[in-house]
Batch of 4 targets.
Target 1
Amino acid sequence: MGILIFIIVGAIAGFVASKVISGKGMGLLWDIVVGILGAFLGAWLAGLAGLGVDMGTFTIGGLLSAFVGAVILLVVFRALTHRGMIHA
């Protein structure tokens, strides 16, 4: 059940982060993918900072860390694609 919560939290975070960064999103599927990857990144970064985030349960801390991770991924993706390094 924990991985399902992790995916749901990541999907929500990716959708919100995409709307915040670009205002329109990248499409539902890509928003979910970015959110799930962002959830992993956010949980890892929170662990490095000494903050315990349990992504197996639906918590505000887990949602916030997933959101931050998704925002970081979106900013890096936009920086790479807008400079012509990756042709998406």
Target 2
Amino acid sequence: MKDAKMPASDSYHPFKISNLKDPNYSAAYLSLIFGEEEEGDLELKIMLSAMRDIFEALGEPNMSADDAKLHLEKLDALLSGDGIATIYALASWLKVLGLKLTVAVDAGDEEGSANVAELAQVGKI
């Protein structure tokens, strides 16, 4: 019997980028990625990769090469920062791509309210 070779599979990346060209899909994708943070599982590498994919789908085709390079450099800088300025920078970065940050009610929270310790933690700069 001859050695059977597995056919090479297509890369998932082009498929993912083609889906992310839909801003609604991109928003849902980021919501899912950011939702991992609530469970303590979000890693900076994963978030950076997701944001770069969103940029590749929504920003890169609509920008000059120089603008695209600057926009990616902003992403690296803002993710290395901390404090309230980081949230504003992220909101600004997403706005250029036609997306925005939003706040939603956590469907898993039966009481629908945060305790004082959680609010204090959020308030830290």
Target 3
Amino acid sequence: MTRSKARTYRRTYPISWEQLHRDARALSWRLNEKGPWQGIVAITRGGLVPAAIIARELEIRLVDTICIASYVGRNQGQIEVLKSVAGDGDGWLLVDDLVDTGKTARIVREMVPKAHFATIYAKPAGRPLVDTFMTEVSQDTWILFPWDSEIQFVQPIAERLHQEGA
């Protein structure tokens, strides 16, 4: 990671499967009031799990995807559209896990400008591009989603400091 990237993410916000499920259900409550919806378009890959939970909660059976590649590890690179959808999004719910810088959101907004865009988490730079979100996090926070992590042993602080010679 470059020095500038190291400064970009000063915090980490780990999300458990349980928390993600609770947050997606809470977002579903907000979205239920704004429907009815013809279907859901999930932005892959991060939007797949939230879209599945929201589809279940709102009893939406029609689910499609817009496939975007933009991140390599923690670095956002060139955005590549791998698959689009037909139409302008009218009556559709567009779902992603997170809006970060807004680069992906801008591209997807152009593709389906009439869709209602919802994310579970939103950072300040991308927040104006979504219609509904659940939780705002700071721009310098890396959200660690459960599909990107695993549980492992961590040494106690005192032991780590002793090993580092502090």
Target 4
Amino acid sequence: MKELIVATKNEGKVREFRQMFANYNISVKSLLDFEEEMEDIEETGTTFSENATIKAEAVSQQFQLPVVADDSGLVIDALDGAPGVYSARYAGEEKDDAKNLQKVMQELQGVPREERTARFVCAVAVARPGEETFVKKGYCEGSIANEPSGANGFGYDPIFIPKGSKRTMAEYSAEEKNSISHRHHAIQQIEEWLKHQS
């Protein structure tokens, strides 16, 4: 494997994957490199693994190259696993971080701290032409704060407190966050797989 595509237009994600694959002399392209050729992929899965697989296989089929795709989100126990796979559009079809946070805060009103357990989940799928797709998952356990805090990160970071911490993810530096994130843990598992490919 000399080249692969990361099925995202998120530059932060691409950077993370690019750093890892560089260790194995694999060059990485993203959907930003194929802007005009790529149709929107409908994520119709009911789990993070299904959505990651749908994305990876659709892109791999189109370009006949190995593809890495991820799907991730926030799972809150007191909300029966919501927002889950609908994390990005929890408050409506338009992706709006502020409205999503507001909705979660409203739904958790009155829920005591010990019942606000939650985790970020990331599923990373690797699809290769003519081979079976596989998925690795990573988790970051924690709880939901009583109010948003911090200006770093994105999405639900201002209300997520990683286990063992008193700060929200949005109060972490990028380096600190990347060392404990759900995506980091999923990527580590992909790296384990890569080590056995050579």
